[in-house]
Amino acid sequence: MTTSVSRPGTGLNGPGLPQIRDGASIDTGRVEALVSQLLVELGEDPGREGLTGTPERVAAWWSTFLSADSSLTTTCFTESQLGDQLVVVGGMSVWSLCEHHLLPMNLQVTAGYVPDGTVVGLSKFGRIAQLYAARLQVQERFTRQVAEHLADAIGHDDIAVAVRGTHLCMSMRGVRMEAARTTTMRSGGRLAADPVLAQQFLALVAQQVAP
What is the widest separation between alpha-carbon atoms in the chain? Predict the structure, then answer.
């Protein structure tokens, strides 16, 4: 297992969220032609039984994969009595693509924060994870982006995000270690500075993430 921990010293909010390419802007006809060409270069016949329609299906998948809703609005609710409570949402599993090899990676996400007068709508955690998974990615950047988005939504840095990834670029190529997992974590504010809160979060992560 590979583990990476990041603790920003000046807050999690970056200069701005990255732009997301809309899948609708992709020339699916061009992608279809390129996939057909790839099959030919690999010694295949795109017109043979079994491959008929494959380039079209692949092009449609790319368009769908890159079509996450970039207009996501994170809903927060006023709750003035929850200042000392740790909220952790786990069990979120998303698929992304390794930008180094264009192979899938499964990312299991656990996110936590300390409310300061507001709480985040629970469904938004999964939508934030889906938003940043729907692109060519690396796990380390994905972890940071989810953490920064959550910190932006709640208006402070008392947050932590842990991600456990299974990477096919490591499982089915290279060293081919199927059991290998990569863990990344980004924490800020009280969840970085308070050892009790940090340990509580890590204990809940261990319960949430499947073996």
Answer: 65
